[in-house]
From TrEMBL:
<feature type="signal peptide">
    <location>
        <begin position="1"/>
        <end position="22"/>
    </location>
</feature>
<keyword id="KW-0732">Signal</keyword>
<protein>
    <submittedName>
        <fullName>Glutamate ABC transporter substrate-binding protein</fullName>
    </submittedName>
</protein>
<comment type="similarity">
    <text>Belongs to the bacterial solute-binding protein 3 family.</text>
</comment>
<dbReference type="InterPro" id="IPR051455">
    <property type="entry name" value="Bact_solute-bind_prot3"/>
</dbReference>
<keyword id="KW-0813">Transport</keyword>
<dbReference type="InterPro" id="IPR001638">
    <property type="entry name" value="Solute-binding_3/MltF_N"/>
</dbReference>
<dbReference type="Pfam" id="PF00497">
    <property type="entry name" value="SBP_bac_3"/>
</dbReference>
<feature type="domain" description="Solute-binding protein family 3/N-terminal">
    <location>
        <begin position="59"/>
        <end position="284"/>
    </location>
</feature>
Amino acid sequence: MRLSHIARIAAVAAAMVLTATACGEQANLGSSAAPAPSVAQGVSFPAGTTMARLNEAGTLRVGTKFDQPLFGLRGLDGNPVGFDVEIAKIIAGKLGIPADGVTYTETPTRIREDTIANNQVDVVVATYTINAARKERVSFAGPYYVAGQDLMVASGNTTITGPDSLRAANARVCSVSGSTPAKNIEKYVDPANIVLFDVYSKCADALRNGQVEAVTTDNVILLGLVDSSQGAFKLVGQQFTEEPYGVGIAKGDVAFCQFINQTLQEAAADGSYQAAWAATAGKVQPEAPTLPPADACS
């Protein structure tokens, strides 16, 4: 009886330690030390513009990811944190909207254009690659970052060394439905070996469970998943595309596009862009990127 009682106490103590550890890991993944962006005071915008409407409303509706460490991950307070989120806050600040005036909608890859076209959000900042097909439905400001597609594998995997090794290894590769990486990987993998989910966290689960041998998407997204895997995953480190991330907005809103581009340029000049990186993705990839040249607004 005495030993049984001691065993129960030990089990409870172990459970408490594990719970505390898990909470600590969750807090670490959902934390961001980015300084609050400055908020423009007394600004005015031309009547009838998106900027004037948002400034008057005092709210910016942002579509972003909730499952991607470093760029857009749901925090303990229910709001996402990450580089994309900080970019959205910088835009809001230039509109005269403080961080607590920003509202977030989870926007997985497959519904990004829909949320803009259906007026559910004002901007989408969600590791959103600019491409011709998407420009048919929405417009883009930016780019604000250029990523590159890579592969994530189990840390002990030495067979997969890059995209050209996938077919010979008969590897099953996971990506997200409707994403640019899912389309790009088709040239390297037999169709039957492509596994698609709605979010990348499910791909990570599939890799952990042995259902696939690799996950593919942009390198910075994979870096976040590697960072949170506690050593289970590694990045192959063979980037094979360029993926310019843009801010998705309503189709044809040239004035709003130009405003966002100017905002990004000012953020790069005053250091707030670099500070946003350092507090988020910079924890894994310390060197701050250079803001890419803006595309023409259309």
